[in-house]
Design a protein that fits this description.
mainly alpha, Hypothetical Protein Ta1238, Chain: A, 2 domains, 5 helices, globular
Length: 148
């Protein structure tokens, strides 16, 4: 009887893991735009950071924080590409800081466009709206950094 319960527990645990894994994969297949948004958000973040990891100006730091929050919201929706924040395309080192900030704005606009696509899942709609709010705030902070 004890071994039957252990076998049942093992089968239940494996079934749960498989179901959760397939739901995550399903979410990623249904929302490839969110995967693009994650890549764009990580790249925008990289454009705002200093290569030597020195402290950022206040507006850039706020923008990076909002980008991180947007990434967290997208991942809460079950869209996770498993990549680290520092996994992004190489930064064009020929760009000056103004150019990097402008590139970050372009990437934030692309991410916003991807995340804003129609969402029919009520749970994901709330996460989507929060992610869009963070992207908009990041965009605003970058604009302030450019003009400040």
């Amino acid at each position: 009887m004890k071994s039957a319960f252990q076998l049942f527990s093992l089968v239940f645990a494996l079934t749960t893991v498989v179901l959760l894994g397939s739901l995550s994969g399903f979410a990623q297949v249904r929302h490839p735009a969110y995967l693009h948004a994650l890549s764009d958000l990580r790249a925008a973040r990289a454009h705002l950071e200093h290569a030597d990891r020195s402290p950022l100006g206040p507006q850039s730091a706020r923008a990076v924080h909002e980008i991180d929050e947007a990434i967290r919201e997208i991942k809460k929706a079950g869209i996770d590409d498993g990549k680290d924040l520092n996994n992004h395309p190489p930064i064009d080192v020929r760009l000056d800081w103004a150019g990097r900030r402008h590139r970050a704005l372009e990437l934030l606009d692309k991410a916003r466009s991807d995340v804003a696509q129609e969402e029919d899942n009520r749970f994901a709609q709330g996460l989507q709206q929060r992610a869009l709010g963070h992207i908009d705030k990041a965009h605003h902070h970058v604009e302030e950094a450019i003009h400040g």
